[in-house]
């Protein structure tokens, strides 16, 4: 059962989660953070900016949840670029310690297993930040993803491509495929922190927190986790 924390707004959520991350890094300077993209985690990264000033973050490690397949990592909307721009540079993290699945490698069939091995070698993720898609996906685990799934290539749903078209010039430019940590991978992080804001996420939040455990609602996998925290505003909590 996930713990639900209802906060006034996204900035308050960002502050709450950033405080938790600062505490983690204070006790573990080489903490392993699970990084998420999308607009939802941005207040966390913004709040971390001030809070981590003056802290040695050179040992902090990070693993992104997912990446598009088939776009150049240098494309401004690749998740590699987004994580670099929104997290690594502003927080002064060591880029060599920050990993993003490689969706542009010729050996794509090995990339998932390689990523899993890198997470394992780091000792696993301490705190995984999660957003949630309007169709209930976490990472890019679209409906139908097995709770046991590992990092692999997936096909994006039309809904997700429409949701993410705002980052591209047109929906035609949104990649068809992605590489994402699996639900089984995500569930191995020691602490899950799922954030959601606005009434557009209310149904996905209700499904994740209270819905049946089903691959059709990938976010419902968090109910299996012994330490999951859901941080939402009133609007995103409105169907709980
Ligand atoms: C993308 C990401 C997810 C994210 C979701 C929601 O699909 N792969 O990790 O949770 O978008 O995005 P937003 O936070 O912008 O609503």
Characterization of the model:
The chain has 7 helices and 10 strands. By secondary structure, the protein is of the alpha/beta class. α2 links the parallel β2 (32-35) and β3 (61-64). It is globular and about 45 Å long. The chain has one domain (3-233): Rossmann fold (3-Layer(aba) Sandwich). The strands form 2 sheets. Strands 1-10-9-6-2-3-5 form a 7-stranded parallel β-sheet, with helices on both faces. It has a 3-stranded antiparallel β-sheet with strand order 4-8-7, with helices on one face. 2-amino-2-deoxy-6-O-phosphono-alpha-D-glucopyranose (GLP) binds next to α5.
Average pLDDT, all residues: 96
Helix content: 25-40%
Radius of gyration: 16 Å
The CATH architecture can be given as: 3-Layer(aba) Sandwich
The CATH topology assignment is Rossmann fold
Distance between the termini: 13 Å
The general outline is globular
Task: Label the structural class.
Answer: alpha/beta
Proportion of strand residues = 15-25%
| Beta strand count | 10
Q: Please give the domain count.
A: 1
Largest sheet: 7 strands, parallel
Bound molecules: 2-amino-2-deoxy-6-O-phosphono-alpha-D-glucopyranose
Given this structure, which CATH class is correct? Alpha Beta
Instruction: Catalogue the unreliable spans.
Output: none
* Number of distinct helices: 7
- Along the chain, the helix and strand elements come as EHEHEEHEHEEHEHEHE
Strand order of the largest sheet: 1-10-9-6-2-3-5
EC number: 3.5.99.6
Site (Part of the allosteric site): 145, 152, 154-155
Keywords: Allosteric enzyme, Carbohydrate metabolism, Hydrolase
Function: Catalyzes the reversible isomerization-deamination of glucosamine 6-phosphate (GlcN6P) to form fructose 6-phosphate (Fru6P) and ammonium ion.
């Amino acid at each position: 059962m996930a713990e639900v924390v209802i906060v006034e707004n996204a900035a308050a959520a960002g502050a709450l989660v950033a405080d938790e991350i600062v505490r983690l890094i204070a006790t573990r300077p080489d903490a392993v953070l699970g990084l998420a993209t999308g607009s939802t985690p941005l207040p966390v990264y913004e709040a971390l900016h001030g809070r981590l000033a003056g802290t040695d973050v050179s040992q902090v490690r990070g693993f992104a949840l997912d990446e598009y397949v088939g776009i150049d990592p240098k494309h401004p909307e690749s998740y590699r670029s987004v994580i670099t721009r929104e997290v690594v540079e502003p927080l002064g993290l060591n880029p060599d310690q920050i990993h993003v699945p490689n969706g542009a490698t010729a050996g794509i069939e090995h990339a998932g297993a390689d990523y899993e091995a890198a997470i394992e070698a780091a000792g696993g993720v301490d705190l995984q930040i999660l957003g949630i898609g309007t169709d209930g996906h976490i990472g890019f685990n679209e409906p139908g993803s097995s709770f046991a799934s590992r990092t692999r290539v997936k096909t994006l749903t039309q809904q997700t491509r429409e949701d993410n078209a705002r980052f591209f010039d047109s929906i035609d430019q949104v990649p068809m495929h992605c590489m994402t940590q699996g639900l089984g991978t995500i569930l191995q992080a020691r602490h899950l922190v799922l954030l959601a804001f606005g009434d557009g996420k209310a149904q996905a939040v209700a499904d994740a927190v209270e819905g049946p455990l089903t691959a059709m609602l990938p976010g419902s996998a968090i109910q299996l986790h012994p330490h999951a925290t859901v941080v939402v505003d009133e609007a995103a909590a409105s169907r709980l």
